[in-house]
């Protein structure tokens, strides 16, 4: 099996490449900054570059001898409250998480159609259940799922498309949010990296492709709530957010100052 993995030098990507190789797959990765100790060959690629992506993908597909599976794993997070006007941080997340996925996938389409292949989108629980103070990430992942739905309709005669919905995994993706004082610690339950990797492998290698795959039982319950009882899901998140605000979790964070003030006003 010939597999291309984006974000291959990051926490998720390295674990995925290693696991796929152990399953006997021939794997090539793409990453903005490949590492010397990457477990597979990783080609340097800026997925925000319209001109570079098709060229690097063509090189990868040539070296693989075709393409059976594309795993769109590349993604970033960062602080981005919805009430603030979008700036460079919002544009960066949308360009990488959504448009970067789109660019790479478009460059892979012909090879995947030829092999009757698969596309796996590493989305997020936040694609269906948004958390506060991280609007750009949630919006980019929800848009990624919408893009996946369109792909499934257009390519479904030849290519399957699966979205995987992990929750939070401890990794450097949360560093910038924590540095801004907007850590969502306590808002989301952490899960193991191994569980996410296993779910992505299932999406890529199972005999019968799945449309949507949460990564834990709790994630499956949250997915159901968000899809079928969205008002209930909103209340749960809003209550948890209010509890974190009352506990002072965001005190001193400039980007959360308005939210802190509003909740204190209501509490008087």
From TrEMBL:
Gene3D superfamilies: NAD(P)-binding Rossmann-like Domain. The keyword Nuclease does not apply. SUPFAM superfamilies: NAD(P)-binding Rossmann-fold domains. Keywords: Oxidoreductase. It comes from the Bacteria. The keyword Oxidoreductase applies. One of its GO terms (molecular function) is oxidoreductase activity. InterPro entries: NAD(P)-bd_dom_sf, Sc_DH/Rdtase_CS, SDR_fam. Belongs to the short-chain dehydrogenases/reductases (SDR) family. This is SDR family NAD(P)-dependent oxidoreductase.
């Amino acid at each position: 099996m010939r597999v291309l993995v984006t974000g291959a030098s990051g926490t998720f990507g390295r674990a995925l490449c290693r696991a796929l190789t152990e399953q006997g797959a021939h794997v090539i990765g793409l990453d903005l900054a490949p590492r010397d100790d990457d477990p597979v060959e990783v080609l340097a690629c800026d997925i925000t570059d319209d001109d570079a992506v098709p060229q690097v993908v063509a090189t990868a597909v040539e070296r693989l001898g075709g393409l059976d599976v594309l795993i769109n794993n590349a993604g970033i997070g960062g602080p981005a409250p919805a009430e603030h006007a979008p700036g460079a941080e919002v544009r960066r997340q949308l360009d990488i998480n959504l448009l970067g996925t789109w660019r790479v996938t478009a460059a892979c389409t012909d090879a995947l159609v030829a092999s009757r292949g698969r596309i796996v989108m590493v989305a997020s629980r936040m694609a269906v259940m948004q958390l506060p103070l991280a609007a750009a990430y949630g919006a980019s992942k929800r848009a990624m799922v919408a893009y996946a739905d369109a792909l499934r309709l257009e390519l479904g005669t030849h290519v399957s498309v699966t979205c995987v919905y992990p929750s939070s995994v401890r990794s450097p993706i949360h560093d910038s949010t924590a540095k801004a004082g907007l850590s969502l610690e306590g808002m989301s339950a952490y899960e193991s990296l191994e569980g996410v990797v296993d779910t992505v492998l299932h999406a890529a290698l199972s005999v019968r492709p799945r449309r949507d795959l949460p990564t834990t039982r709790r994630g499956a319950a949250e997915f159901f709530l968000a899809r079928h009882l969205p008002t209930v899901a909103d209340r749960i998140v809003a209550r948890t957010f209010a509890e974190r605000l009352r506990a002072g979790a965001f005190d001193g964070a400039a980007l959360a100052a308005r939210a802190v003030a509003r909740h204190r006003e209501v509490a008087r």
